[in-house]
């Protein structure tokens, strides 16, 4: 971040904000917020944290260290519809100091003036955004809090991390699969283990074809996973923590994924075995 800022300044640009992420989309990775806060402080930049997915897990004491430095940020956002049982859409924005936001966006024509606003008795959120009107999104969150309570929401969030942990352990123990990144929160990134890593290294056309075959086979078998790319390498992703998801569901999903991977690797192994004698004959 510091190098990018220096490069911008040298090019005559004016950096105004630094954005960190707590829970990236592909692998749920976390930026070091204290380090970013140091850089932002030295250059006088607004520090925003995109915690759209990961921010919900800050409610769990065991995951608080991942958010170290969050208190030094100027703003951060959390999408409640991603993990907090809220129907789409609801995002919560937190700011350390509302005054810069109000100074930039507040506009009060005469027809909006009223005694409650003038006295400070109410918070006029239309001044926190570009649009004047807004839907009553917070009502959905109120219903969930009333239904589950803080303890119930924590239990729901924690269960997803526990299920992901068990799936990750099964991947590590399997000869057919491998982790593509450390298990993070409720997300497991994994791959079909290569039959011949030298012939088909990660990122190669053959390796990508193998991962695609596994993805399609697993979905055809009734288990929903998606793919992404990490460092240019195709990976598969299983997200845990549905409100009705239980351990047996994750175990069943793993059995399907491992079985399909075993079939593909067995077929690929046969192809490798067939090619070896041909290669030997050619060299002879």
UniProtKB/TrEMBL annotation:
<dbReference type="GO" id="GO:0016831">
    <property type="term" value="F:carboxy-lyase activity"/>
</dbReference>
<dbReference type="GO" id="GO:0005737">
    <property type="term" value="C:cytoplasm"/>
</dbReference>
<feature type="modified residue" description="N6-(pyridoxal phosphate)lysine">
    <location>
        <position position="82"/>
    </location>
</feature>
<protein>
    <recommendedName>
        <fullName>Tyrosine decarboxylase</fullName>
    </recommendedName>
</protein>
<dbReference type="Pfam" id="PF00282">
    <property type="entry name" value="Pyridoxal_deC"/>
</dbReference>
<keyword id="KW-0456">Lyase</keyword>
<dbReference type="InterPro" id="IPR015422">
    <property type="entry name" value="PyrdxlP-dep_Trfase_small"/>
</dbReference>
<dbReference type="InterPro" id="IPR015424">
    <property type="entry name" value="PyrdxlP-dep_Trfase"/>
</dbReference>
<dbReference type="GO" id="GO:0030170">
    <property type="term" value="F:pyridoxal phosphate binding"/>
</dbReference>
<dbReference type="InterPro" id="IPR015421">
    <property type="entry name" value="PyrdxlP-dep_Trfase_major"/>
</dbReference>
<dbReference type="InterPro" id="IPR010977">
    <property type="entry name" value="Aromatic_deC"/>
</dbReference>
<dbReference type="InterPro" id="IPR002129">
    <property type="entry name" value="PyrdxlP-dep_de-COase"/>
</dbReference>
<dbReference type="GO" id="GO:0019752">
    <property type="term" value="P:carboxylic acid metabolic process"/>
</dbReference>
<keyword id="KW-0663">Pyridoxal phosphate</keyword>
<keyword id="KW-0210">Decarboxylase</keyword>
<comment type="similarity">
    <text>Belongs to the group II decarboxylase family.</text>
</comment>
